What does this fold into?
Amino acid sequence: MSTDFNKRREESAGLMEYSAENLVPFGPIHPSLKEPEYFKIILEGERIVDVIPRIGYVHRGLEKAAEMRPWVQNMYMFERTCGICSFVHSLCYGQAVEGLTIFQVPKRAEYIRLIICEMERIHSHLLWVGLMGHWAGFDTLFMWVWQDREVVLDLVEAISGNRVHKSMNAFCGVRRDMPEGMEKHIVERMKFMTDRARYYRDIIDTEETMLERTQKVGAHVTQDTVEKLCAVGPMARYVGLRQDVRLNNPYAAYGEVPFEIVTRNEGDVQALLRLRLDEIIASANMISYAVENLPDGPIKVKIPPVIPAGEHSSRCEAPRGEIFYYVKSTGGRTPDRVKSRQPTLANLPLALEILKGQTLADVPVVLTAIDPCFGCMDRMSFLDTEENKQWTWSGEQLRQYGINYYFPDRKKKA
Amino acid sequence: MSENILEQIGKIANETNSKVVTLRKGETVIEVEKDNLRTFITHLVQDLKVRNLTTITGLDLGQEIGIMYHFSYERETIHVRTKVAKTSAAPSIVKIIPGAILYEMEVHDMFGTGFEGNPWNDKKLLLPDNWPSDLPPPLLKSSKPAEIRKRLHLEAEPKK
Amino acid sequence: MLEQLAKWARTRSPWVFHINASSCNGCDIELVASLTPRYDIERFGAVLVPSPRHADVLIVTGTVNAQTKEPLKRVYSQLPEPKHVIAIGACAATGGVFKGCYNVGQGIQDVIPVDMFIPGCPPRPEAIMYGVLKLLGEVE
It folds into this structure.
């Protein structure tokens, strides 16, 4: 059985062999039972053979709406593309539009942008580490990490006034200045964050639950696969590629603040955990440096509401990977075309590739490892070609299945 | 290294009869004919090792649909632009860059341009399942959001 | 007598099912943050359940779009009576900043009846807890 499976897996793992006819209708399928789902997972017994994505649950039509709204309103709309990396979205859009004008961003604003970007990175990575703990069945990690995350959210709130959608960006600058006398406090909190990140790093390297669920899971990814599928961010860095926009194409103050890129070579889910925790430490160092060396000067330059004609693109490094914005202007008060590419879309083909060959119990951990948006985990349907079964599970049911599979002696939660 | 890449791109552009336009430092647009697209991108990816496709953007240019392929190589951003008529299909580059598969699906959803050779060309990526087949694609300049909302039954029902 | 006991159990320990109807996840993470030790909604007895058939209260984030309209209605019908619905955030109330986009409804009250709106973009965890507890107070 296993040799047969391996042969099939080799065939279906070939990147050129995307087959269009994957779903074989089995038995009487009642039309009213058909639920739209994010992933259709095709199994042979316990092993995954293929995954078909169906996103579109969060498709709201932002690019069309952007063509009808003034330039500055779009900045705050694109911020709400994602609740977790919202500042980077508005920054990337802002940079794409600023490039069409003749104005320069003041130095102080660039440093403040860097500080908020890195704080966002810390909060996003901590959020993700907590979620990994939750999906792996280690809820204590989830609770502790999210409590430490509140430290960073307090700092963000003190600077910008909001925890999630900071609305700090403006064209050619930022809207609020750094409050007076906060430098010492920020440096001290960053030291606390570094200590906590080291502590969690220890946990994921030694704690049995996490080792069982993350070591060597999803470990058949090569550098060539990642490059062919054009994955970005941590999903490229965890196989050793030095791919980071902050290094390759610095923006804001990244050219001046010392930056160490973090890469790993193992290529499994545990490598992603280690990589993101190390990135938290690197971010904390950058914030401390930027806060202590903040240049004086204005924080904003006023620009006219009409943007000159032309096209420009910008890329930034969000916590999940590379964000890309392309903007086209015909010289009016509203854009002609805005295109935004989120990193989760870029990493999705890689995620589908990693899933092939995994067991069903590994699905929640592997899918969370690429750091997708929440909603993607809500609904999945499964088709088992061996047993002629088809069923739908919510994320929570799948999570419980995974925990029972790996830790069968643990009592099931009520 | 970066200047070298622009020189080499210029050479391929000459061979395929394409036009190179420098927008500013770090951004270049190459206008390629639809029939030369696959050759151009094959050279770019295999010979020059420009492997990172960022995304594919569609543009409504009035009579035609513009398709832009955005590549990143160190500090250079390279846009490759081609044009297809509104009713015809474009060549798919999935065999050259497997990572392009979802981006082509997105352009197909938003502008109606099919991609010949894309195995998931008949599947929807972003548009809802109940999208009426006679409704034009949303990102064309002629499509109106209020009309689309009505056809998708998203308007509030009048209070009884 | 049994009815009073059931009512007491429901208000002292509401079981909550959360559904994300095309939200940007901002409201979702503030909702999940209210479970974490600093805010800790569990001390009021609220528990997140994995299936709508076990829930008393449905929490919806995000504005409804064409793809999530039917699942939302289906989940609402799966909740056993008596049920309550809480809409979190500006998007769930009116469509929020996306009002006017082509794939966005004008708020979820056009799809299912809503008992409580919690405004904010996103509302703080304290605001979410206040809203949930106020709803229970009204039930009582």
Notes: Chain A touches chain B at residues 15-16, 18-20, 36, 52-56, 59, 61, 63-65, 68, 99, 227-232, 243, 248-249, 310-313, 315, 322, 324, 326, 328, 337, 339, 341, 345-346, 348-349 (CB under 8 Å). Chain A is about 45% helix and 15% strand.
